[in-house]
Amino acid sequence: MAQLIEKQSGEPAPERVTVLVRKYDGTEHRRWQANIIERRESLIVLEGVFEGEVEHHLMGRITSGTRSVEYYWLDRYYNVFRLTEQSGKFRSFYCNISTPAELEDSVLTYVDLDIDVLVEPDFSYRVIDLDDFEVNVVKQGYPEEIQKRAHEALSELISMIERRQFPFEL
Questions:
Q1: pLDDT tens digit string along 33-75?
Q2: Rounded to an integer, what distance in angstroms lies between the CA atom of residue 107 and that of residue 86?
Q3: The three-state (H, E, C) secondary structure of the chain, written as one string
Q4: Which pTM was predicted?
Q5: Closest to 21 measured CA to CA, from 92, 85, 86, 116
Q6: Diameter of the chain by CA atoms?
Q7: pLDDT per residue as tens digits for the range 81-112
Q8: CA distance 136 to 25
Q9: CA 87, 90, 91, 96 torsion-angle sign
Q10: Which residues contact 31 (CB under 8 A, 6 or more apart)?
Q11: 113-162 pLDDT tens trace
Q12: Which of 13, 67, 81, 154 is the most exposed place for a label (fewest CB within 10 A)?
């Protein structure tokens, strides 16, 4: 059941948040605006729209108007983006291995732990940036616990994709 904030007029008004992504050393990696469209237990679901074109090294051109439904958990070491083209056609899922999200004062933050999973419309998937993770284990000094959690999160995500468990449903 979605939990939305009500306007005085009684119409639902989504809460606007800033998503702030950091690297393990604390440096800012990315930021964007999105709306909270659902909250339940440890799950926060956001919706954002690409305002300009983005050229991605694996996904190609992401056009302006592409919709992103973003699934963040306060207790899981990953997040999932479901990308839909402006026409309504499903484009892909993009998953980040990360620290659990934190939401405070309309800012949702997490630490990007490098490993990503790209899921195509046919549910084939690629694990990417494992080499970046291994470099940053040394360069940024990821503790053993973070390394363990990242690998467990990757295994859990792959299992969810293969079983088409929430949010990997079409």
A1: 999 999 999 999 999 887 766 666 666 566 567 889 999 999 9
A2: 26
A3: CCCCEECCCCCEECEEEEEEEECCCCCEEEEEEEEEEEEECCEEEEEEECCCCEEECCCEEECCCCEEEEEEECCCCEEEEEEECCCCCEEEEEEEEECCCEEECCEEEEEEEEEEEEECCCCCEEEECHHHHHHHHHHCCCCHHHHHHHHHHHHHHHHHHHHCCCCCCC
A4: 0.88
A5: 116
A6: 54
A7: 999 988 899 999 999 999 999 999 999 999 99
A8: 10
A9: positive
A10: 18, 19, 20, 21
A11: 999 999 999 999 999 999 999 999 999 999 999 999 999 999 999 999 99
A12: 13
Q: Which residue has the tokens 């004062």?
A: 105
Can you tell me the distance from the alpha carbon of 155 to that of 55, in angstroms, rounded to the nearest whole number? 28
Q: Tokens 């940024």 label which residue?
A: 140
